Amino acid sequence: MRAKTYPLQTLILTASGWVHRHQADVVRYLVEENRVLKEQLGGRALRLNDDQRRRLAAKAKTLGRRTLERVATIVTPDTLMRWHRRLIAAKWTHTGKRIGRPGLMNAIAALIVRMASDNPSWGYCRIQGELRKVGHRVAPSTIANVLKANGIKPSPDRPSSWRTFLRAHWGQVAATDFFSVEAWSGGRLTTFYILFFLELKSRRVHVAGITRNPTDWFMGQATWRARTFLEGCRYVIHDRDTKYSLRFRTVMEDAGIETIRTPLQAPNANAYAERFVRSIKSECLDRMILFGEDALRRAIDEYVAHYHENRPHQGIGNERIDGDDVVSEGDVVCDERLGGLLKSYRRAA
Known about the structure:
Helix content is 47%, strand content 15%. The chain is of the alpha/beta class. The protein folds into four domains: 1-44; 48-88, no CATH class; 106-159, no CATH class; 168-345, Nucleotidyltransferase, domain 5 (2-Layer Sandwich), CATH 3.30.420.10.
């Protein structure tokens, strides 16, 4: 029996020895490769994430310190063992239940910020009273901490927002702005400047003038012609463009209208006028090749008529500015302007 099994044992021992030598060669190669890669770092620390540390620590525990001192090249054996101890500690670390008063809910904190932002004159106690009306009991000191964390000043020093100001004077505020359009004139592209005014409450628009050169004289004449449109307004918002000259301000003052300049680099402060510019360009002017000032005037007049009579406006509940009552019966027909560039739908009478 021993003579029959001896060749098999020899074969097994030979194979295992070859595998051991092969594995040792692989380990020596990987160790040398790690040394080469570490030299490429040039002395810089190798940054590992938590998952990489966990994987190395788990493998290091089975090797022991003596083997690690021989094969570990990326980090020291002490570092690997320290990571392993942290894994053990993390396994038995449990987050205890918080004792004491729970933190303020995010919803209540957001409500405090909203009340303070919408009402600059409200102090801590007033906000506390409003919160109590909706079922939240919060101390004034907590309200103060929330506002401080969000960078909101106390009520005497808290400025009013543009949104609050505009809503408080909705029916007495208008906005004005320029936009430019390129049209072919005299065989070359010419820049035309269009001055317009917009009532914030109704969204009604008045084009005051079109010119190639917005001089001080042009501003005075165009503003003078817009006085009828601005009747009843007390404030006109405009940006800091130098086109709003002394004559423009003089005409406004004579009409009893106060001009309000927007802050520096704050286009959202004149958002309604900016939105009209975007609408007329994207829906009309950017889709046309204009030849001469007359073509430009016709396109603008047609769009303004469409803007007032046919186009619904989200800011006023998707209503039309000058539209008739909605008819629910009859065939649906399409009205076209500028050769079908501007379309609207209604029911036939």
